[in-house]
TrEMBL record:
Protein name as catalogued: UPF0260 protein GCM10007071_32560
Organism of provenance: Marinobacter zhanjiangensis
Family the UniProt entry places it in: Belongs to the UPF0260 family.
Coiled coil spans: none
HAMAP family, A to Z: UPF0260
Length: 148
């Protein structure tokens, strides 16, 4: 018997069902970090500040189903807009597959365990602070280089 080829290896992003698309998220939390953009160069800088809705231990959104109502600037990735987000980290499964790279062994779809993203040190779990605990004028002091 031939093992079935996993959907992420046989389908393009635009061909995936909503459930398949959602399952690509590894739960790292990097997309939920506050990012600052240089007005002159358009370069994007990550901070160690997380969206107020992120559980900083699990990296899960506490308001996922209605996140755009709670946080209007929340980024919602779709197959149609994925190319617009050049700032996605190199490890992001959406970016990985869009660039034709294979999912890493720590990805929950490969490992079968959602904890492997944390065990591999890829997630931001326990390394970030909720942004609403830091005055916005101080956010620049929180720029980091360990995300990518």
């Amino acid at each position: 018997m031939i093992a079935e080829i996993p959907f992420w290896q046989r389908k393009r992003l635009a061909e995936m069902t909503a459930a398949e698309w959602e399952s690509l998220c590894d739960g790292c939390g990097k997309c939920c970090l506050v990012k600052l953009q240089d007005e002159d160069t358009d370069e994007v800088y990550y901070t160690d500040l997380a969206c107020s809705q992120m559980d900083t231990t699990s990296c899960q959104c506490q308001s996922y189903s209605n996140r755009q109502q709670v946080v209007p600037e929340c980024t919602v990735l779709t197959p149609d807009n994925i190319d617009q987000f050049h700032w996605l980290p190199f490890t992001c499964a959406y970016r990985t597959l869009a660039e034709g790279r294979p999912l890493p062994s720590w990805h929950p779809l490969r490992s079968g365990d959602p904890a492997t993203v944390h065990e591999a040190g890829v997630s931001v779990a326990r390394r970030v602070t909720p942004a609403d605990q830091v005055p916005q004028q101080d956010w620049q002091e929180h720029i980091i280089h360990w995300v990518l």
